[in-house]
Write a structure and sequence with these properties.
alpha/beta; 203 residues; seven-stranded mixed beta sheet
Amino acid sequence: MDSSECSRPLVCAHAWVASVVQTGDYVVDATAGNGHDTLFLARLVGPHGQIDVFDIQEAALISTQQRLVHANCWYPGIRFHALSHSHMATIVKPGVRCIMFNLGYLPGGDHNIRTQAESTLTALEQAIKLVTPGGLISVVCYPGHHGGREESELVSEWMKKLDPHSWRVSQVAHWNAPGDAPFLLAAFRLHSASKAKDNPASF
């Protein structure tokens, strides 16, 4: 993989997720889409892990299921929920290692059906209570589509307000790309808030 590929927000998201997720972990795909993130997570956690997968569109869940079957990664710990990610706290229990968000619309689907700023922020408020210390919340934002800029800006502002004693927030963006280019926001939950206060540079 060359350096230009590594710098893509989604590729970077996968690299960071892979750095914290281990076999047997509990993880969440908050926006199933066509199943690329779910398959990636399934390969990380393996047959003894658990994945909760959310999407409001049945077509997305079916596409994700087909992708898992084709890759021989249909594991008993994978559960599918035809729900908005804003309801994840009704299903997901605390102790999750990673929650992945890939905002926007379903590729190949109806562009009018897309993630919304209000429900995404509700989901993120729930996510910070579900992720275990040492875990990660990953959000790929797409400001280029209708409504995407507002959502991306609001998510960015929300991330900036996370307690720095408990979270480290990073952004990956192409500074010399058009202003509507996708970008990654990632919030790492620290192992110890007291340790972070003593050493603000620590992760």
